[in-house]
Design goal:
The complex is a heterodimer of chains A (about 140) and B (about 70).
Chain A lengths: L2 H29 L8 H27 L2 H31 L10 H19 L8
Helix pairs in contact in A: 1-2, 3-4
Chain B lengths: L1 E2 L1 H7 L4 H8 L3 H8 L7 H11 L3 H4 E2 L5
Antiparallel strand pairs in B: 1-2
Helix pairs in contact in B: 2-3
Classes of the chains: A mainly alpha (about 140), B mainly alpha (about 70).
Chain lengths: ~140, ~70
């Protein structure tokens, strides 16, 4: 498998899963009423957008495993630094929440935070190793 | 690790992209190996050696690591 084919396979899943994700977020926010008790259907509907995010993450993991070994090393380094930065930031914010009156952040923001840190790391490592933007 | 990949490639008048295509890796990977920024895996080192009909030791010099 060439890197080009791996990228094509990635975008073949990424684009439809993001369209489905955005559609489901819109549908769920319109369909779930904040008034009244939550039913089983409410829980299932609330989890629907996450399913499409999992599909996208699976496509990302598959992409990383399919590209050549040097680019894979860069991706894995970027993922590692993304994880370290996310864990460090969430731990630091958690302590602030315990002991100071900072606002409580929803746990939802951990995932976009990881992708932000991962993206930054991929750009920095890619630039250092002369591969351009190594994110994708 | 030092290596003679750039010289071997130049002898055949191949671009990094051409060599990468023959080895099923990217141009960036060839560049990283040539500049010593990345040491290839054993399977890739064997592939390179076979392509240039040399032994791995002929192409890669690990003396600096000793």
């Amino acid at each position: 498998m060439t890197n080009k084919q791996a990228k094509k396979r990635y975008f073949g899943v990424f684009v439809p899963s993001m369209v489905a994700y955005l559609t489901s977020v819109f549908g769920v926010s319109m369909g779930i009423s904040e008034e009244g008790p939550a039913t089983l259907l409410t829980y299932i509907m609330a989890l629907t957008p996450a399913v499409f995010v999992f599909v996208w993450m699976w496509a990302h993991a598959r992409f990383v495993l399919e590209i050549d070994e040097f680019l894979r090393m860069i991706q894995i380094k970027a993922i590692l630094w993304g994880l370290i930065a996310t864990m460090a930031a969430s731990t630091a914010w958690g302590f602030l929440e315990f002991f100071t009156p900072v606002p409580k952040l929803p746990i939802f923001y951990v995932m976009p935070g990881f992708y932000l840190f991962y993206g930054l790391a991929a750009v920095i490592i890619g630039k250092r190793d002369n591969v351009g933007c190594a994110m994708l | 690790m030092k290596n003679s990949l750039k010289t071997l490639r130049a002898e055949r008048d191949w671009s990094q992209a051409t060599l990468g295509k023959q080895l099923d890796v990217s141009r960036q990977t060839i560049n990283a190996i040539e500049t010593g920024k990345y040491d290839p895996s054993l399977p890739l080192a064997f592939k390179i050696a076979r392509l240039f009909e040399r032994s791995i030791e002929d192409i890669f010099d690990d003396k600096a690591l000793e």
